[in-house]
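Before relying on records like the one below, remember that each one covers exactly one chain. Contacts with other chains, cofactors or solvent are not represented anywhere in the record.
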Amino acid sequence: LNRTRIFFEGHYTPKFDYHFRVNIDDEGDFSLLVTYLQYNIGEKWNVRGGRQFIAMSREDWMFPQDLLTTEFSPNDFTFALRSAMGVQAYYQGERTRSWLSVNNSAYGGKKDFPNNETTRVAVTGRWENQIVGRDWSMWDDVVGRRGRPRGVLLGLAGGYQVQEDGSTFDRSAQLHTDVSLNGDGYQAMIAGSWTWRDPVAADSFSNYGLLAQAGYFLSEHVQVYGQYNLVSPGDQPGNFETFNSITGGVSYFPFLWTNRWKFSAEVGHLFSTINDTIVEPSESLGWLSSDEDGQTYFRIQAQFGF
């Protein structure tokens, strides 16, 4: 079992919501992913306090059940913030919505953009605009079921964080943009990331990421999909090469009303030597540690929830 998550969520009153989420990994280790209290100021505003996922990249904002592929992408594994402790305000209008957060940074203060273990404070924000369409519910996943209206979504996000080391500061930042297309039985997304770090004892450097994916339903229950990932080391010191991979698969959804049940068969090919990239090898991701060029995997996955 690669991932098991247990949810406890509900309402104390119409003004106060709560959410607890526990994750159990493939080693059987427990971690508390989410524990927040949300105050609903009105129909358009709310504020959350506690441990929560921070709105930056659209993929990282998804539940695992609502992904297009069997796992989060290499871009997400490398650049995503995941859950952190903090306060996050949210506003939703007819065509735009936005998030603003002050938190203890990427991976709850354990990493920065992407991997410093001593970061302390981050300020992040995300803004989305429905260029086409007025239904926010169609963007709750990146699957793209049949029967949905046509829509185009633009997302822009940014974050800045600092680590105090005595009297000096190690700074890092990230900018992210994505464009999503949704319609009757299809959904596509292209996303780009720029990350920057200014270490105390070295020159600053940048990394870059590109993600492109699309899925199409051949029938109400059967979907085919593909994904491309590029993760560039940019000018990061060291002998790194660019991560390039393609993924394709087919999924069967037994129920039309939920994404929680899904059976997938997927194949992926990595053109690079993963040990020479800035993407960490991971059995969950599908790419294992190797010093050789090229790597291919095939896997099947059963996903279920209740």
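The chain has two helices and 15 strands.
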